[in-house]
Each structure stands twice: as structure tokens, then as C-alpha cells.
């Protein structure tokens, strides 16, 4: 069975559609690495597409730091500053059906009940059902990175907020976990996937003007992007 991981979508529904077209007939299963909301213009369209896709294809949806922040905000935590600074205005605008300025978005965020009412129940259920990681046996898929010094401990013991917010090149070890290669998003480094010793990062800035949305074959480490560009990003640990 061919399983592919998909990087951070960030509201870019057109790029998501183009990439799914590229994967048609290639991927038996898809693992999405999180960050479906924020920054891009069509977060609602992204969730509609993913919910529909899950009804026809085997999919696993990971929690990204942006969904984490929204869920914690809806639960009553003070996450407004993060949401306003890192793309939440675009999400609120898309769900409200009109462009909001930052001041107006801040006023909306002051009323959690009003915000919750903007999100369709199916979208909230989707986000509330996201999982922290996915283990294929050869690759461990996470949004951010395992914390330095975590070693081969049980993943259930890893702090969830760190798992989604860690940067693999700053906060996380570039090492395997129980022999698995780590496949992550969250840390855009280039418009092409970056392979290191034991990590492959496939956040290629889909929400940026010159960015791409990337999918990675979790067995061969070949990749394809929404514009049709292809390549290979095998971590050095595989050759050891």
C-alpha cells in the first residue's frame, strides 16, 4: 500500500486540489501533517475538501499548531495574540464571508461564542478529532518535532504543545525515533523538501506567493508538488 504525507495546507484550497489531482492513482493512503487553517484565503474550502476526501480514501489528519491554538482559544485560553499575528484574521474573514481588519478581528475574538458560531459543526468536529502523530513502522509523522532528549520514550508521554510547536532544526533532535525516520511540517525552509540526518521536512510554504504544497511517499521518499515538480528527499540515516 502506498502512503503519502502532505505538508501544511494553510487555507490554500486551489493548491490542495492540484496536489490531490497529482496523487490520483498514486496514493492508497494519505497522512496530512496539520495546519489546515490560517494564513491562506480559503480555510473553509480546505476543510470541506478534506472531510469529503476522508469519505472516499484512507486518510489520517494530524493536529497542527494552528488548530491547537484555535482549540485552546475555544476552550478559554488566551491565544488571541497568536491567532491575530499568525494568520487567524484570514480564517475569521473566510468564515465570516467578508474581509476583516485586525481591529475588527480582535473584536470578534473577544466573543468566543460568536467565533464558535462561525465554524460549521462538521469543521469543529474535524478539528477536534485531529491526532498527534502517525506511525507507519518506517516513518513517524508529526507536525513539529520531538523534543530534544525525548529519546525513544512513549509518544503518549510527549507534551502535545511541544510536539506541534517544536522546530525540528532548533527545538528537536535530528534523530530517529525507535528506528523511524521523522517526517514533519511546520518549519518552512525552502520551496523544496529538506532532508537531514533522520528527518524530512515537507513544509514548503504553500501559503507563500512562491511556495508549494508537497506530498512525500513515505516508503521511497520521492515527492511531488502541486505544480508537478518532483524529486527525492531521502534522509542520510537510511544510507547508514
Q: Please mark out the parts with pLDDT under 50 across 5 or more consecutive residues, or reply none.
A: none
Q: How would a textbook summarize the main sheet?
A: 6 strands, mixed
Please give the count of helices: 9
Fill in the CATH topology. Answer: Purple Acid Phosphatase, chain A, domain 2
Molecular shape: globular
Radius of gyration: 17 Å
Q: Calculate the mean pLDDT score and round it.
A: 96
Number of domains: 1
CATH superfamily: Metallo-dependent phosphatases
Cross-sheet strand order for the largest sheet = 3-2-1-9-10-11
Q: Roughly what percent helix?
A: 25-40%
Give me the secondary-structure topology.
Elements lengths: L2 E4 L6 H11 L5 E4 L10 H12 L3 E4 L3 H10 L5 H6 L2 H9 L5 H8 L2 H7 L2 H8 L4 E3 L3 E4 L17 H6 L15 E4 L9 E2 L3 E3 L12 E4 L4 E4 L4 E3 L8
Parallel strand pairs: 1-2, 2-3, 5-6, 6-8
Antiparallel strand pairs: 1-9, 4-5, 7-8, 9-10, 10-11
Describe this structure in words.
- The protein is an alpha/beta fold.
- It has a six-stranded mixed β-sheet. It has a five-stranded mixed β-sheet with strand order 4-5-6-8-7, with no helix packed on it.
- It is about 30% helix and about 15% strand.
- The protein has helices at about 15-25, 45-55, 65-75, 80-85, 90-95, 100-110, 110-120, 120-130, 160-165, and strands at about 5, 30, 60, 135, 140, 180-185, 195, 200, 215, 220-225, 230.
- The chain is globular, with a radius of gyration of 17 Å.
- A hairpin with a 3-residue loop joins β7 and β8.
- It has one domain: Metallo-dependent phosphatases (Purple Acid Phosphatase, chain A, domain 2, 4-Layer Sandwich).
- The model has no long low-confidence stretch (mean pLDDT about 95).
- The chain has nine helices and eleven strands.
Amino acid at each position: 500500500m502506498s502512503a503519502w504525507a502532505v505538508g501544511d495546507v494553510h487555507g490554500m484550497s486551489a493548491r490542495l486540489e492540484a496536489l490531490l489531482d497529482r496523487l490520483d492513482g498514486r496514493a492508497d493512503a494519505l497522512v496530512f501533517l496539520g495546519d489546515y487553517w490560517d494564513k491562506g484565503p480559503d480555510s473553509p474550502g480546505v476543510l470541506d475538501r478534506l472531510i469529503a476526501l476522508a469519505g472516499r480514501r484512507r486518510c489520517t489528519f494530524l493536529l497542527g499548531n494552528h488548530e491547537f491554538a484555535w482549540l485552546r482559544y475555544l476552550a478559554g485560553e488566551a491565544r488571541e495574540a497568536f491567532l491575530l499575528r499568525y494568520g487567524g484574521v484570514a480564517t475569521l474573514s473566510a468564515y465570516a464571508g467578508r474581509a476583516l481588519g485586525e481591529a475588527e478581528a480582535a473584536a470578534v475574538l473577544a466573543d468566543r461564542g460568536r467565533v464558535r458560531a462561525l465554524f460549521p459543526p462538521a469543521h469543529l468536529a474535524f478539528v477536534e478529532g485531529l491526532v498527534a502523530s502517525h506511525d507507519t513502522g518506517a516513518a513517524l509523522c508529526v507536525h513539529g518535532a520531538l523534543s530534544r532528549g525525548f529519546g525513544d520514550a512513549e509518544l503518549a508521554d510527549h507534551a502535545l504543545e511541544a510536539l506541534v510547536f517544536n522546530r525540528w532544526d532548533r527545538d528537536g533532535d535530528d534523530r530517529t525515533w525507535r528506528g523511524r525516520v521523522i517526517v514533519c511540517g511546520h518549519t518552512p525552509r525552502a520551496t523544496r523538501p529538506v532532508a537531514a540526518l533522520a528527518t524530512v521536512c515537507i513544509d514548503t510554504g504553500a501559503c507563500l506567493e512562491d511556495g508549494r504544497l508537497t506530498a512525500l511517499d513515505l516508503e521511497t521518499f520521492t515527492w511531488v508538488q502541486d505544480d508537478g515538480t518532483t524529486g527525492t528527499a531521502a534522509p542520510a540515516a537510511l544510507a547508514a
